Amino acid sequence: MHRMTRHGVFLVPVLDRWLAFAPLHGVAAVVNAAAARDLRRGAAVLSNGALADLGRVLRRVPSNAPCPPDGEACPPLLGIIPTRGCNLACAYCDFGGSSSAHTTMAPSIAVAAVDWMAQRMRDAGRRSYRVHFFGGEPFLAPEIVAIVVHRVRLLADRHGLAPYVDGSTSGVIDAGVCEFIGDYFSGIAVSLDGPPEIHNRLRPRSGGQPTFDHVNRTVARLSEMPVELCLRACITEDSVEELEHVVRWMIDTYRPSAVNIETLTPGVASRRAGLKAPDPYRFAARCVSAYKVADDTGVPVVYSAAERERARLSFCPVGTDAVIVSPDGRVSACYLRPEDWRSRGLDLDVGGIDTEGTVVIDRGALGRVRELPLLKPRCARCFCQWTCAGGCHINETYPGCAVDYTPFCVQTRIVTACLLLRDAGCGEVADALVSDQRAMERLACHWWDPFDSIGDENVPVTGEASPVWPRGGEPRRAQSGSPP
Question: Is 19 helix (H, G, I), strand (E, B) or coil?
């Protein structure tokens, strides 16, 4: 498979205008068709005023494009999977749920991983030390969690590192675990799909018993503790129209640090349960409305595929040199099950911990994983290639996947465009976009976004060549809250 060609500037149709987006320059602007034509031809720099300023910015060669790591592995993150076991039987879970093996990581493996990571951070001159607990349900192995947390704190203090420990949980944990999280964790993400009528259908125990009351108590406790609390909701076809209500209810009830919303990833379990992913156009419209709820409350809403704060090469830990240690001591780039990788023709193991307690990294395997974010031909024409970065390597942009946009692509393109419009001070344009089905379809299905390759026939001339700027009369940076 060939490497995709990445681009730095894009033009995307928005109603009767165009969104000019330069993620590596941190700039987004709304322009009319004639201005878009002049920008494409390079004529804008010959004019005066704001359009010329924008033209010069867009033609500047960026110097900050992310690239794959090289040399020795230097992980930004150490992932620990204390156990694959779980105490829930979520209706959409293809991890095995409560039927997963409850094999627990040996303390020696946990210590070896933590020690290796600390040494790598010290050798690389890093100042922080981040550890994330994945599952299953990591707190079904509380002894391993405690060993890792306390050793991380010890070594971070010894080497002058700032520890950041976080993790994910179902929320079906006891009060003592909550206290431990409050005392020693920097952040925690709790899966909560909505009020009782939504959550209990989607996230029951293995016998079908409801879990909302237990999760509600957990989240209420954690919301009173000095920890960054993220509530993570899975949105389905049945709950998408309630999305704004769910987000406002979460914020009003718990005042979390953030609310993360993701759509259902269809699989064997979800199909058996009769669950479907939401229509991507409905999700996009409701998602944009949910972001407006966040404006009113000050609690951020996050759709993780619409990252705008920085350009990124990969959607997830894969390809970033992050290492995730499984209960059996395998060192991998992905927390999903190996059988999921293999079904896509991938091997994401990069090493292991041997019987002597030494972490061994396979340089060849590491190099192959580092290349994966560059092997996404579907993304080559999309303006989200530096923001979404292709989504999941297993579920979305695996080797040999179709080049056509998927429902995930459709919703991500619309949501990202609307958030960029909001960042640029053109929220009313975003609102008009999600109210117009044909306009959403035109944006979502636009074949070729890159600015430097767009055909003239795709930018019809209507009106004078003048930009439609946001407030202030000059290009604004795409990042929310950044100075112009």
Answer: strand
Q: Distance between CA 291 and CA 168 in Å, rounded?
A: 23
3-state secondary structure at position 42:
coil
Handedness of CA 380, 381, 384, 388 (dihedral sign): negative
Architecture, CATH, for domain 78-361: Alpha-Beta Barrel (3.20)
- CA neighbor of 6 nearest in space, from 478, 385, 446: 385
Cα–Cα distance between 198 and 302 in angstroms, integer? 20
Torsion of CA 288, 283, 190, 132, to 10 degrees: -80
Give residue for tokens 């609307």. Answer: 418
301-360 tens-digit pLDDT: 999 999 998 899 999 999 999 999 999 999 999 999 999 999 999 999 999 999 899 999
Q: Is 125 left (phi over 0), alpha (psi -120 to 50) or beta?
A: left
Residue 357 · residue 386 · CB < 8 Å: no
What's the 3-state SS for 254-291?
A: HCCCEEEEEECCCCHHHHHCCCCCCCHHHHHHHHHHHH
Which two three-digit tokens encode residue 123?
A: 């050798």
Q: What is the pLDDT of residues 346-399, one digit of tens each?
A: 999 999 999 899 999 999 999 999 999 999 999 999 999 999 999 999 999 999
d(CA 198, CA 247): 13
CA nearest 137: which of 191, 184, 58? 191
Q: List strands edge to edge, sheet with 301-302.
A: 301-302, 258-263, 228-235, 187-191, 162-169, 128-133, 78-80, 323-325, 330-332, 349-353, 359-361
Alpha carbon distance 190, 205 (integer Å): 16
Most distant CA pair in the chain: distance in Å? 72
Q: Which pair of structure tokens corresponds to residue 174?
A: 């006891």
Give the start-to-end residue ranges of the domains of the chain: 10-65+386-477, 78-361
pTM of the model: 0.91
**DSSP for 232-259, written as a single string:** EEEE-TTTGGGHHHHHHHHHHHH--SEE
